[in-house]
Amino acid sequence: MENKETRSLPLPSEAEGRNVSGYAANFLEYDMGTFRERIERSAFSNLDTYDIHALYNHDYGQVLARRNRGKGTLDLQVTEEGLKFAFELPDTATGNEVRTLVGRGDVDQASWAFTVKSEEWADVRSDKPLRIIKEVGEIYDISLTPRGANPTTSAALRSLEAAIQQLTPVIPDNTPEIVEEKPEIQEERTANFVDASAVQGKLSKSEKRDLGKFNIIKAMNEARNGRLSGVEAEINQEGLAERRRLGLADGADNAIHMPEFLTKRTNTATGGASNGGDLVFTDPGKYIDFLYPNTPLLGQVSVFENLVGNISFPKQTGAYNLNWQTETGTDTAQDLTFGTVDMSPKRAVITASVSNQLLKQEYSQGIQARMINTLNQSFNKGLENAILNGTGASNQPSGLYTLLNGTAQELSFAGNMTYDDLVEMEKTLAMSDTLQGNLAYLTSPAVMASLKKTKVDAGSGRFLVEGLLDPVMTANGYRALSTTLSPAYAGPAYGVAFGNWSDLAVGFWGGASLIVNPYTQMKSSITEIYIERFMDTAILRNESFVMAQDVTV
Fold it and tell me: What burial letters (b/e) apply to 363-394, b meaning 16+ CB within 10 Å?
């Protein structure tokens, strides 16, 4: 349900035998990131009308108790402290499992899911408005969990926006009509921050509004002085709340936390004036971009956003075998086998130096667009390099070539690639039933150029790679991509990879944070900007890829 919300509290160590008790909610005031929240004592006046289940991890397939409108095995009481629950764990597989986990302290949170029937807002003009829940609408479940559910607050934020709008004064009839900015101008303004075409249909109206108003130069200037204002402050509060929901630390006081929706898409700029290609310098010439590598993989891999804590993807490692028996023979039951693919947040950081003179031009859209584009391109370069070449050491993710090195998925060609080598790579995937999905070759431009000049055979007139430009080029019918980030080895020898790129995952824990440091290089009138984001990469199935590291040209 759209308006369902969740909250959680620590589960006290009060379990005796099979009896579990604690508080699902209390009447204290809590900081929810973008707002504060307090539940009134009268909010549970209709408690006896609820049919509430006690669950394990919010799973209705794992019922522990039930309060059937005041009757049943789940006891709920409103005390001076809050909504208290108590029940006896059932003698079932789930009940026995939870008993063990609670006793060991592995399950130490109580979470509840509910809707709000009546609420009020106070201090709506402050940085932290106060939400007062007057009456709870419906309580769906109370769950014991190993980790409290992320507090869902979208319904609260919508009601806060409505409360603010109610305070907005009505324009008198004799007031001149306010003419809205033309859509094409709005789009041009938005393009100074991101490629507007990339976000059409993916953002809410409020998000599109914020995109058009957010000014990163203004935000950095205000962060230097210790206080953000306007839409920059709102964006920061939303980003801070997102970090807290995802279990990340708040970061420095002078940080600008940008939520996921501002940073999750690949931003591009072509160098035209509308994209910030023309900058205000004494020399009226064009600003020349650094030659960033092409990053074709970012549009091919599977992306997971807003991850919480360490992630384990379940992975089936075995299957059932078909057996043949006599007419009355007895077959043996078989178990499926499973493993996991793990990801954990790794801190990616860029430190940039910006002159204070440049920061003073806070409303220069060209400078803003160029800075955003440069930062994004730098992150994209570093991320794609980690996807391919991350060593797994020194806080890096483990990249494709590292994970496949020395495995059955590594082939050796020891020379120029031939048509037989392409077939051998495809055969390796086919033998493991993985020659399917988002298949493509990836190598360096040097190898790609060699393959475009190497004939399939003496008489066909065809070449190993054919086509004009990425991603139209193909190798033996499969897409052929190239990047300068594809590894080069001694010899010189180069890497070539082939596989289903949807089985390579990139995970993000929230958006990016910009930490403004005006002190380290103060004497040089330079401000340092630390840009950090938490991310990781993983191969969901090694069998979906094959690679060689010894291809020469």
Answer: ebbbbbbbbbbbbbbebbbbbbbbbbbbeeee
Is residue 3 within 8 Å of 155, Cβ to Cβ?
A: yes
CA torsion angle 451 453 458 460 (round to 10):
80
Per the rule left: phi > 0, alpha: psi between -120 and 50, beta: everything else, 105 is left
Query: Can you tell me the distance from the alpha carbon of 376 to that of 388, in angstroms, rounded to the nearest whole number?
Result: 18
10-residue mean pLDDT profile of the chain (553 residues): values are 77 71 88 85 81 87 83 87 90 90 84 88 79 89 76 70 56 35 38 32 46 67 74 78 73 72 42 30 39 70 82 71 84 75 87 78 60 76 88 89 90 92 95 91 92 89 81 85 80 88 88 80 83 87 92 89
Closest to 30 (Cα-Cα) out of 82, 80, 75:
82
Dihedral angle at the C-alpha atoms of 390, 394, 396, 400, nearest 10 degrees?
A: 30
Tokens of 431: 């033998």
Query: How is residue 480 written in tokens?
Result: 């052929």
- CA 89 to each of CA 64, 66, 93, 100: distance values in angstroms, whole numbers, following the listed order: 6, 11, 10, 11
Alpha-carbon gap, residue 215 to 10, rounded angstroms: 40
The order of strands in the sheet holding 19-26 is 19-26, 82-88, 75-78
C-alpha 206/C-alpha 34 separation (Å) is 15
Residue 68 identity: N
> For the structural domain made of 407-505+542-551, what CATH number should be given?
3.30.2320.10
The CA distance from 206 to 107, in Å, is 38
Rounded to 10 degrees, the C-alpha dihedral 223/228/234/235 comes to -20
CA 167 to chain centre: 35
pTM over 0.90, yes/no: no
User: So where are the chain's domains?
Assistant: 5-167, 407-505+542-551
